[in-house]
Design brief:
The protein folds into two domains: 2-231, 3-Layer(aba) Sandwich (Aminopeptidase); 236-308, RNA polymerase II/Efflux pump adaptor protein, barrel-sandwich hybrid domain (OB fold (Dihydrolipoamide Acetyltransferase, E2P), Beta Barrel). The protein is 21% helix and 32% strand. It is built from six helices and 17 strands. The chain is globular and about 65 Å long. The mean pLDDT is 95. This is Succinylglutamate desuccinylase/Aspartoacylase catalytic domain-containing protein. Pfam families: AstE_AspA_cat (PF24827). Its cofactor is Zn(2+).
Length: 311
């Protein structure tokens, strides 16, 4: 059932309307568990749109196996998606930097507070993001180090390639994921793919993982497929490979390739002179989990992230 989370009037008789689709089992009871699938906070991140579509279709076609509540929020920033804008247009702000918000605050803060209010009480949430237009990410879950013991067991069920356990100091307290975890609602931050595009195989991979997670939680009684065993970054160093020159980057490795220290990741060339400006070299042995997608680079541009110490 489609429900309105928040609706606010805008200029010229327009409205900001955020909706969710609630899917419930036939014989719902007070003890039924609830999972929330959240995406669309950034208008240029579209990977979640396909995931929502596939989840809804499969649940509806097999509703007899549903044993709980699934709330799907496909577009928390509908103005951004409609205008191909990362943030909330007109207000020039990042929706994921205003949580937990305030009902008595400005419009964006009010919207953030109503979103939190609607999610309150969920047993688990998945906050789904894509990368920007410059980088492509392998399907991964990002977990703050201080809550890894609580979240990593859930993350392992999601059929992701990589779980990035990162220092607490890098976590922004104004994000939706942080705010929900701070309210003791286990929330997994998923990031995959590239901005302004949909990577169908990544979406299918995550959908399998979500059904696996729901099965473990007792929300889904249908059969599920085996999920992959993810690489986990605990006690392994994430290395950032940056360009030292400007030009056009062409990779010679792929995602999840194992590379050696001093091995070439790609080349940066000058299309005017025909010269190679730089051979981009790995600084460690490891596995590539982030790779430059947009070919134009400048000095300092991020080319790749490599998880060191993986064999």
């Amino acid at each position: 059932m489609v429900e309105t989370v928040v609706s606010l009037g805008l200029a010229v008789d327009e409205k900001l309307v955020i909706k969710k689709n609630r899917l419930t089992s036939v014989n719902i009871n007070e003890k039924a568990k609830r999972i929330c699938i959240i995406t669309g906070l950034h208008g240029d991140e579209l990977e979640g749109q396909y995931v929502c579509y596939k989840l809804i279709r499969k649940i509806k076609e097999n509703i007899k196996y549903l044993n709980g509540i699934v709330d799907i929020y496909p577009s928390l920033n509908p103005l951004g998606i409609d205008s191909v804008h990362r943030g909330m247009p007109t207000f020039d702000l990042d929706m994921n930097r205003i949580f937990p918000g305030s009902e008595s605050g400005a419009m964006a803060e009010h919207v953030a507070a109503k979103i939190i209010e609607d999610i309150e009480g969920a047993d688990i949430c998945i906050d789904l993001h894509a990368s920007n237009i410059f980088l492509r990410e392998v399907p991964q879950v990002r977990v703050s180090e201080h809550i890894k013991d609580k979240l990593v067991p859930y993350a392992k069920l999601l059929n992701m390639d990589f779980i990035w356990v990162h220092p607490e100091s890098t976590v922004l307290e104004s994000t939706l994921t942080y705010s929900l975890n701070n309210k003791n609602i286990p929330t997994l931050l998923v990031e995959m793919g590239v901005g302004m595009r949909i990577t169908q195989e990544y979406g299918d991979q995550l959908v399998e993982g979500i059904f696996n997670l729901m099965k473990k939680l007792g929300i889904w009684n249908g059969t599920v497929n085996p999920v992959r065993d993810p690489i986990i970054s605990t006690e392994k160093e994430v290395n950032f490979i940056n360009a030292n020159s400007s030009g056009i980057f062409m990779p010679c490795v792929k995602h999840l390739d194992e590379i050696k220290r001093e091995e070439k990741i790609g080349e940066i060339f000058n299309s005017l002179t025909g010269e190679i400006e730089e051979e981009v070299i790995s600084s460690c042995d490891g596995v590539v989990f982030t790779l430059r997608e947009y070919p134009v680079v400048y000095e300092g541009s991020l080319i790749a992230r490599v998880l060191g110490g993986v064999k």
